[in-house]
Specification:
Blueprint lengths: L10 H31 L6
């Protein structure tokens, strides 16, 4: 799909933003795992 005529964001900025989002996604997964471990420790594990 060709870029829009209104798309003026430089490619490097888009890639930087994508990298930031990927880091946030990884941090979210890490936190989700920590929450699951803590809930399991408290007796609220998945059934």
């Amino acid at each position: 799909m060709p870029p829009s005529d209104r798309d003026v964001t430089p490619f490097e900025d888009k890639m930087r933003r994508l990298n930031d989002l990927l880091k946030q996604q990884a941090e979210g997964a890490r936190l989700d795992a920590a929450i699951a471990r803590n809930l399991a420790w408290l007796g609220f594990g998945a059934e």
